[in-house]
Amino acid sequence: MPDFTAHEHPVLAVACPTCRAKAGAWCRRPSGHVASDLHKTRRIEADRLFIEQHGELAAIIRAAPGWLIDPRGRARD
Ligand SMILES: [Zn+2]
Fold first, then answer.
1. How many Cα atoms are found within 13 Å in the side-chain-facing hemisphere of 41?
2. Domain named DNA-binding phage zinc finger: which ranges (predicted)?
């Protein structure tokens, strides 16, 4: 199961379907240069797995020194 709190960005917990960057590695452009943003397909996949793992109401929040899961983080809207 992906660990969304383990990396500098939560989306890095999953591999990228577009550029095939492995979990933990930043996305690459076709040229091989590091992309400025993570691919949309990867963000969608991370979101899907996050909800599957933590539920519809969970959110991920930045906390010092890393990331924490708030199981009811979207319930306050
Ligand atoms: Zn990518």
1. 8
2. 7-53
- The answer as to whether 50 is a domain residue is yes
Q: What is the pLDDT along the chain (77 residues), one digit of tens a residue?
A: 999 999 999 999 999 999 999 999 999 999 999 999 999 999 999 999 999 999 999 999 988 778 889 999 999 76
Query: Distance, CA 42 to ligand 1 centroid (Å)?
Result: 6
In this structure, what token pair is assigned to residue 54?
């933590």
Query: Which structural domain, as residue segments, surrounds residue 53?
Result: 10-70
**Spacing, Cα 70 to ligand 1 middle (Å):** 26
> Residue 1 in 3-state DSSP?
coil
